[in-house]
Design brief:
Elements (H helix, E strand, L loop, with lengths): L2 H13 L4 H13 L4 H16 L9 H69 L12 H7 L5 H7 L1
Length: 162
Amino acid sequence: MNESDFNQLREQSWRRKLTPSEEAQLRAWLADHPESLANWNAERHLTRVLEGLDNAPVPSNFTARVLQAVEREGASEVRQAGPRRKWFLHSLLPRAAAVMVVLGAGVLAYHGHVTAKRTAIVQSVRMVSNVSSLPSPEILQDLDVIRQMNPGPDQEIIALMK
């Protein structure tokens, strides 16, 4: 016998008296599980006390009253859940709007930066394309000779600049 069988026997003892075979199964379970004995004795005593009570008369509209109470409880849960959702939306919407504004400003700033960079590149290309002729690279071949001819700055020119 396992714990679910024990629970089933316990529930059956609430409704009716157990058969001798069920009593034997119950005693075997309690012998194997002494920690359940105190709980079993308390439940058996409670069941006997409840059996001794008189049955209370039930009003004719008992079912209707229970169903109304259930509906009221469900409606109160809906009312309590409603403002909570509204609070969530009221706190979420301004935050989402602020995030969208910041993201939009960032995208516009980046777009402006990229556009300015492209414009500068286009102007540089136009400027270079307007030059009619560039000096040939052969001029640079004689650069070492030119440097050797004039080893230092011209002192007369420096004196005139002062």
